[in-house]
Amino acid sequence: MAPVDPHSYTDGEHPVTKHAALAFYLDFAASTIHASALLTLSAPHSGDLLLDTRGLAVRTASTAADPPEPIPFSLAAAADPVLGSALTLSLPPDTTSFRLTFSTSPDASALQWLAPPQTASGQPFVFSQCQSIHARSIFPCHDTPAARITFSLLLNVPAQLSAVAAARHVARRDPLPSDHRGACDEALWCAPGRIVEEFEMEQSVPPYLFAFAAGGIGFRDLGPRTRVYAEGGDKVLDEAAREFAGVEEMVKVGESLFGPYEWERFDLLVLPPSFPYGGMENPRMVFLTPTVIKGDAAGAQVVAHELAHSWTGNLITNKTNEDFWLNEGFTTYAERRIVEVVQGEERAALNAGIGWRGLNRMMERFKDNMEFTKLKPNMAGIDPDDVYSEVPYEKGFQFLWRIEREIGRPAFDEFIKKYIATFKFQSIDTETFLEFLKTNVPGIENKIDLHVWVEGTGIPPDAMEPDSAVYRKICSLAAEFKSGKLPSEDEVADWSGQEWELYLENLPTDVETSQVTALDERYKLSESRDYEVKVAFLQLAIPTGCKCYFNEVEKCLKQVGRMKYLRPLYSSLAKCSSEEKMLAQRIFSEAQEFYHPIARSVAESILSKHS
After folding, report:
1. For 206-230, how does the pLDDT look when each residue is reduced to its tens digit (9 = 90+)?
2. Cα–Cα distance between 9 and 15 in angstroms, integer?
3. What's the rounded Cα separation, in Å, for the pair 403 and 441?
4. Which residues participate in catalysis according to the annotation?
5. Crossing angle, helix 345-365 and helix 325-343, to 10 degrees?
6. Bridge partners for 26 per DSSP
């Protein structure tokens, strides 16, 4: 066996799936999908073929012939805690396609099922989150970004619901007996009160970008190729439409910087607050947390990041999670270029300044295992969710910014456009990028120590802290906090959430309770609607032992499931006294059913580590 990815059972000597025809019956009462998948391989194959699964109940495997012939298969009895279980098929000679029928587990790691009382619409809701290695909990696949697929998808849902997917919407129609292909009984598939939403994805994507959602979903048009969807009724839709009104202009800016937008539409879905990330760059249908709706268009920066993925991440994809910086470092750089055009250089510099503080904070987080401060770490045996951090984003950004400073922006712009045009719709590794860099920028390895940047731990000496007048002023005010000086109302009069976030990120951690309460009494940061500000403040307050903020911490941990907030708040509580540890355990026990399985697992890991 020749593994292609430390996080997949995929054998590099065998063909991989190139197309999946999927039929899903969504059983909300059982939190289960009953499904069939017709998988087509990149080349004919005979003998054993391995697929990734996690928690799936595989019922049948058969040839695609008419009539079908059964295919012997076995599912590993003991699941690996990171990889899940290998599904081994014994394919007859020269097999190019085969059919599987299976059901997901109610605990599928990619899926969150919300009951009507948990949603704003009063309707049941389900959504998927497959990054990094969770597509295997929805359907058997070669769950590695090295194996890009096209797919068709039939979602059979209750007729009062709507469904969306990261694919072209073909039709909303009545179920047909020929649709289910063994996913479930025909009577169930065609039962009264059910509807089928049909989708097609003609462009190849890595499996982690497979995505769908179903529930009481409405929408507003934003532009000729942009639309915002949301669960939560007119109020949420109207707020989202105002927040993201400039998205069409962002797409045009992205095209001017990085080349044609290849995905036809750029739609947004605002998910319930349990969504574990800020955004997920699913092509054609970006998933977003409602916490990015702040009322001041600041959430557009998250959209800029997900839009930038349309070129770096979706068009060109990291081959494995060890190359994750190729997705996120490039996208963070591209995001800031878009923000620079749309919102100005000062705003882009603030964005980069917050990132710089985040990168330095990651050095402290990983001080006992600096392997995960490398751009290309060794990830064998490591769950990507456990070490998810700002390192690939911000160290990756710093690396690319270093190259830009060396060769100049005009030359670097041409390099990026050529890079995207050369590798689009491919998955590549770090070594391929470095060879392309050295070929197209001759002598770069003599000016920048590429080995230190990619293989070295920590922050390289030629990384650079961002600089701007506003950035320097905020850092200066933060430095004065230690001596007891608070910023005046005149000094913060024009601050948005981003300025406050940068200020709080730069405050010393060893502050007195009186200083924290004085800051909050003046500016009400613990009550901020902007969760970036609220969480940064609460993270500062928790170690002081000031119990007056425990209620705000609890509300925050019970109202949003975004891991960017859960991780620091649970970590701060768990590192304190037994009282704070007990508080963290109680909150988690009461809130865990609200969290997506990925977020629940991360919070459990934090509490277990500090128990």
Report:
1. 999 999 999 999 999 999 999 999 9
2. 13
3. 10
4. 306, 393
5. 150
6. 33
